[in-house]
Structure formats: structure tokens, C-alpha cells
């Protein structure tokens, strides 16, 4: 059984996305892949890390035992043994076990852990001009355990230059340069409702992603023309404006956010139910609601099936997956 640890030196670099997408892609090729997270993210208690449940929901597998709390004094022999047992348990019926690492461990401890479970290590980093230096530090620490690196969240205008810079300076196999993708930062409709402390008036089974927020001020153009510019949007509108609400519902809309605590008229409710568009009722006014949404994307979660599909497509398009599979001893 091949074992791969996915590591980074900071939280939020995309380890969970990479682990889930790799398992998803391997599954499509008929390879049995298991994912586990034996040590919780830095600063989280053992049962407070949501990622094991995310893996279970997205990949359709049991979440397994709660991860261990990150050791404050570094990796111990006992912790290494417990991680080894957790990895063996998770991969009992798998061809490949993918292990999400934690940034709470030092470079040296991560090398020791890779030795303990006989794993290759894939380094993931959030792109910055200094990322090549970070990758070199990982290379020096991991030595022969290095499977390669992936640069994530590469901005649109840095793309080609970023890849050339990493290939020239990282001194580690650069297996992917993954661009930013709006869907991966998008909240779901229920995320929006929770963030705004809103009330779902007509909850729908499909918890769609919200890629944009729109509202309509004074305009000479028809509302349908304006709202038709974007799909997968949430429309923020006063609860007593059926004209704007109906214009939004005439275009692809993820949800309506009705402000000032006012519910839409029955005609709008009926149209929303027919189109399966959720309506969220919030007490603040439109401007205050827009202000409250400013912090919604501060800590996006990789916890939605559409995000799994989107990131898997990004890996297929922008990563050298055959090289990674070869490093794991797989012939795909």
C-alpha cells in the first residue's frame, strides 16, 4: 500500500482540497484511496477539527476516529505510533492512503513521521513570491521522502511567471501551479444564512454555492438585464420590493436575501418555490447586510461537492498527475 502525506507550513494552504481531490481522481481510475487526518489542525482540540467529517461527506466514507490533538512539544514516539496505527486502520482496504498533515509539526518532525509510516510527502503552499524559498526548506528537510510540490491560489496575473519562477528556484519537482478559482472561495446558501443569522423561509434540498452578491439600485435598465449578468448569485433586496425580487427570480439565482425582517408577498413566494430558490429573511437593512457579508469569505471551507469537482478539474488541468502517480508506484 502506498502512503502519501500532504503537508504545508501554514493552515489554509489547501491540504484538505488536495487530499480530497486526489482521492476522488484515484477513485475514478478504479484505485481504492483512503484519506485520514490523524493529527488535528494547529489550535484545535482533538474532536474540534471538521476535516474528517468533510472527507466522510465528500468521499462517502466513514470519518473514523477523531484526530489527535497536535503535540505542543513536538512529535513523540507515542504520537508517531498512534499516527501509524491510525494510518494503517484507515488504509486497511485501500491501495493508496492519503494523509493530511498538520502545520503544527516542524519540518524535522514531519520527516520523522514520514519515516514512521513509510510515506512520500507532497508539499502544498499558498503562492507568494517567496514560495520557492519555502519549498527549498521542505526539500532540505524531507530529502528522499519528497514527492513534489504544488503551488496553490496562484493569482491570475502571476500565472506564467509564477510557474517559471518556481521551476527555476524551488529545487524540488513542481507538480502543479493551481490558479485561484471563485467557486472554491464561495459560501453555500446555508453558510450565508448562518453568517447573517438569517431565517430560511423556504429551505431547498440543493444547498447551492453563492459566487456573487448583487443588489439593484436606481436604474433605467430592466432588472432582468442587470441580474442576468451573473448566475449563482445571492440577491440582497428589501423584503417589500416584489418588483426587484421577481426580476431576480427571472434569472439564475442561488437565493434571495430579504432585508428589514419583511417576508415577500405570496406571489413571490410561489415563484421562488417553483424555481427552488431559497429565501433568507434578515432583520438588518440592505446596507448593513452588505457590510456584514464583508467577512463571510475570511475563512472559506472546502466542504461542498461542487468544490470537490472544481478542484479535481483544476488538478487535472494544471498538475502533472502522472508524475505524482509514478512517485506513488501507480501505473495509471
Spell out the key features of this protein:
single chain, 332 residues, alpha/beta, Rossmann fold, Udp-n-acetylmuramoylalanyl-d-glutamate--2,6- Diaminopimelate Ligase, Chain: A, domain 1, 2 domains, 6-stranded parallel beta sheet, 5-stranded mixed beta sheet, 14 helices, 11 strands, 40% helix
Topology:
Blueprint: E1 2-7, H1 15-28, E2 33-36, H2 51-59, H3 77-90, E3 96-100, H4 107-117, E4 120-126, H5 131-142, E5 146-154, H6 159-169, E6 174-179, H7 182-185, H8 189-195, E7 199-200, E8 212-214, H9 223-227, E9 233-238, H10 242-249, E10 255-259, H11 266-275, E11 279-281, H12 286-292, H13 305-318, H14 321-327
Parallel strand pairs: 1-3, 1-4, 2-3, 4-5, 5-6, 8-9, 9-10, 10-11
Antiparallel strand pairs: 7-11
Q: Strand percentage, roughly?
A: 15-25%
Per the principal axes of the C-alpha atoms, what is the gross shape? elongated
CATH topology of the largest domain: Rossmann fold
Distance between the termini: 15 Å
Structural domains: how many: 2
Largest sheet: 6 strands, parallel
- What are the segments in which pLDDT stays under 50 over at least 5 consecutive residues? none
Helix content: 40-55%
Q: Any idea what the CATH architecture of the largest domain is?
A: 3-Layer(aba) Sandwich
Amino acid at each position: 500500500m502506498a502512503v502519501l502525506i500532504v503537508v504545508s507550513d501554514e493552515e489554509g494552504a489547501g491540504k484538505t482540497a488536495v487530499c480530497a481531490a486526489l482521492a476522488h481522481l484515484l477513485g475514478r481510475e478504479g484505485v481504492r484511496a483512503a484519506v485520514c487526518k490523524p493529527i488535528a489542525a494547529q489550535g484545535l482540540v482533538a474532536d474540534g477539527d471538521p476535516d474528517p467529517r468533510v472527507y466522510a461527506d465528500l468521499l462517502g466514507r466513514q470519518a473514523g476516529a477523531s484526530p489527535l490533538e497536535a503535540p505542543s512539544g513536538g512529535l513523540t514516539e507515542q504520537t508517531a505510533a498512534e499516527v501509524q496505527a491510525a494510518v494503517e486502520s484507515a488504509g486497511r482496504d485501500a491501495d493508496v492512503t492519503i494523509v493530511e498533515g498538520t502545520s503544527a509539526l516542524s519540518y524535522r518532525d514531519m520527516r520523522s513521521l514520514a519515516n514512521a509510516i513509510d510515506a512520500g510527502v507532497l508539499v502544498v503552499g499558498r503562492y507568494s513570491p517567496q514560495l520557492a524559498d519555502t519549498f527549498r526548506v521542505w526539500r532540505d528537510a524531507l530529502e528522499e521522502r519528497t514527492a513534489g510540490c504544488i503551488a496553490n491560489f496562484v493569482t491570475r496575473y502571476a500565472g506564467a511567471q509564477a510557474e517559471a519562477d518556481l521551476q527555476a528556484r524551488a529545487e524540488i519537482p513542481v507538480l502543479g501551479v493551481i490558479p485561484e478559482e471563485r467557486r472554491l472561495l464561495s459560501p453555500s446558501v446555508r453558510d450565508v444564512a448562518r453568517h447573517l443569522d438569517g431565517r430560511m423561509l423556504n429551505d431547498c434540498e440543493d444547498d447551492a454555492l453563492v459566487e456573487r452578491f448583487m443588489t439593484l439600485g436606481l436604474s433605467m435598465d430592466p432588472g432582468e438585464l442587470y441580474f442576468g449578468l451573473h448566475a449563482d448569485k445571492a440577491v440582497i433586496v428589501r423584503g417589500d420590493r416584489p418588483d426587484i425580487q421577481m426580476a431576480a427570480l427571472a434569472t439564475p439565482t442561488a437565493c434571495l436575501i430579504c432585508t428589514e425582517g419583511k417576508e415577500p408577498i405570496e406571489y413571490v413566494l410561489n415563484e421562488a418555490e417553483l424555481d427552488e430558490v431559497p429565501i433568507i429573511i434578515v432583520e438588518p437593512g440592505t446596507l448593513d447586510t452588505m457590510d456584514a457579508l464583508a467577512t463571510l469569505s475570511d475563512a472559506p471551507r472546502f466542504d461542498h461537492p461542487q468544490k470537490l469537482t472544481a478542484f479535481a478539474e483544476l488538478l487535472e488541468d494544471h498538475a502533472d498527475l502522472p508524475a505524482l502517480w509514478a512517485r506513488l508506484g501507480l501505473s495509471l
